[in-house]
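Q: How would the C-alpha cells look for this protein?
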Amino acid sequence: MTHAYVVRYVGGPLDGRVDSVPRPAESPKPTVTHVHLHGGPKIVHHYDLRYAVEYGCEYHLRTEDESAG
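A: Here is the predicted structure in C-alpha cell form.
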C-alpha cells in the first residue's frame, strides 16, 4: 500500500484543508494565493510553503509581520 503525498493548509480560510496527490510536485509553488469572493470586497490571503518531513508539505498563512519584512 502506498501513501499519498499530503499538502496541508494552516490558518485563514483554508485552515484544515488537506489535498492528497499521488506524488510531490517537482517544483512546488513557494506561495499559494487564495482569493475569497463573498459578495463584498475581494479578500486575498497568501500561504507560504513549509516542508513537513512526515507527510509532505504545508502552506502556512502569511501574517502581516511576514508581509512587511
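The chain has one domain: 5-68.

The chain has a mean pLDDT of 85.

Upvote if useful.
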